[in-house]
């Protein structure tokens, strides 16, 4: 019997990307459009929620039109509307949630609410046809660093999370300390490419021999004190630092963060008896993390499946992809769906 084609339109505006996508049967991306706001927020060194929300209002309709045109479909071919409703910046989430509810009502389509963090796991499977479950998954981004025990796309158990700064947030703060451009992740990686990762022994926080939680506030503070003196009582040396010194700081910081991410992920795989490891989220774009985790998994006899770089950062293809599995289960929302800032 031929599998019924299920076409889902996904929307995403949880932070600073306005995105829409059309995905068939959870994996076939028919169209994916993302409007980035990086240039708007660069002068502030981070995302300003009110500015993000206003930009989403301006972008949502053009992005939707472009997506449907690229997919060569009209609303009659769409089976459901999916939207990321948590977690994220409430003013930003509100735009796509409102748009999704409006389309669902106007077109008479089912509405599906999707957890943005869970959808980063689906981004791993958009270009990977093989079965990957059961697995342990690391989702690492600017706002979240989480480990999941995954039995299926919709059976996810949170087993580890950041207790303070997420890894991506630490990258942004270190970039700000060193006067590097926003976003911090690519800037720190680029600056550290010519540095010595063993030049500075920044602390690694493991939180105990069995812990799967993360903490990156300590290493961010260690970088701050290295640059400005203990308790910030010394001279701010960043302006007079050589490019080599900055490169060494970036390389050493990046190595310390990746050491923790890799060790915790392999620890989780052992505790869950999982033979497959999934990696997604914005920080999964980082080459050092991808390469180190690949080597560690190979040594431990684990299979590693990493999201394609074009699907690491926020996008709506992952939203529509995960929504397919919720559609099959009949897991629909109603028009009272509201944005939720925190993790569900």
Brief description of this entry?
The chain is an alpha/beta fold and 344 residues long. The protein has helices spanning 38-41, 49-71, 90-107, 116-125, 167-178, 184-192, 217-228, 243-271, 287-300, 317-329; strands spanning 7-12, 17-24, 28-36, 80-86, 111-115, 135-140, 145-152, 155-161, 276-280, 303-306. The chain is built from ten helices and ten strands.
Index terms:
344 residues, alpha/beta, Nucleotidyltransferase, domain 5, 10 strands, globular
Strands, count: 10
The CATH first-level class of the largest domain comes to Alpha Beta
> For the residues shown, what is the average pLDDT?
94
- The CATH homologous superfamily of the largest domain is named ATPase, nucleotide binding domain
Report the uncertain regions: none
Q: How many structural domains in the coordinates?
A: 2
Alpha-beta classification: alpha/beta
The CATH topology of the largest domain turns out to be: Nucleotidyltransferase, domain 5
Looking across the biggest beta sheet, what order are the strands in?
3-2-1-4-5
Taking the alpha carbons of the first and last residues, their distance comes to 37 Å
Helix content: 40-55%
Q: Tell me the series of helices and strands, N- to C-terminal.
A: EEEHHEHEHEEEHHHHEHEH
Residue fraction in strands: 15-25%
Form type: globular
Radius of gyration: 20 Å
Under the CATH scheme, the architecture of the largest domain is: 2-Layer Sandwich
The biggest beta sheet is recorded as: 5 strands, mixed
Distinct helical segment count: 10
């Amino acid at each position: 019997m031929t599998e019924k084609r299920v076409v889902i339109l996904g929307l995403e505006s949880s932070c600073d990307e306005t995105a829409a996508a059309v995905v068939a049967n959870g994996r076939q991306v028919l169209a994916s459009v993302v409007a980035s706001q990086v240039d708007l927020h660069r002068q502030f060194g981070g995302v300003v929620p009110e500015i993000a929300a206003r930009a989403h209002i301006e972008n949502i309709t053009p992005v939707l039109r472009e997506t449907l045109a690229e997919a060569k479909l009209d609303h009659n071919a769409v089976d459901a509307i999916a939207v990321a409703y948590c977690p994220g910046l409430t003013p930003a989430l509100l735009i796509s949630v409102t748009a999704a509810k409006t389309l669902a009502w106007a077109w008479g389509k089912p509405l599906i609410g999707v957890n943005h963090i869970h959808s980063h796991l689906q981004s791993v499977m958009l270009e990977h046809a093989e079965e990957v479950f059961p697995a342990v998954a690391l989702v690492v981004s600017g706002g979240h660093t989480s480990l999941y025990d995954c039995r299926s796309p919709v059976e996810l158990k949170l087993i580890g999370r950041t207790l303070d700064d997420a890894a991506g947030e630490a990258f942004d703060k270190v970039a700000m300390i060193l006067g590097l451009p926003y976003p911090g992740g690519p800037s720190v990686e680029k600056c550290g490419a010519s540095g010595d990762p063993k030049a500075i022994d920044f602390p690694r926080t493991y939180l105990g021999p069995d812990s799967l939680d993360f903490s990156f506030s300590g290493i961010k503070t260690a970088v701050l004190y290295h640059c400005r003196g203990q308790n910030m009582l010394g001279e701010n040396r960043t302006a007079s630092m050589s490019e080599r010194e900055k490169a060494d700081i970036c390389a050493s910081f990046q190595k310390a963060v990746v050491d923790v991410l890799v060790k915790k992920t392999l620890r989780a795989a052992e505790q869950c008896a999982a033979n497959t490891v999934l990696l997604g989220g914005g920080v999964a774009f980082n080459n050092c993390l991808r390469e180190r985790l690949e080597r560690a998994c190979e040594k431990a006899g684990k299979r590693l499946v990493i999201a394609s770089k074009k699907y690491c950062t926020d996008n709506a293809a992952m939203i529509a992809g995960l929504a397919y599995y919720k559609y099959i289960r009949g897991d629909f929302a109603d028009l009272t769906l509201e944005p939720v800032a925190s993790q569900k």
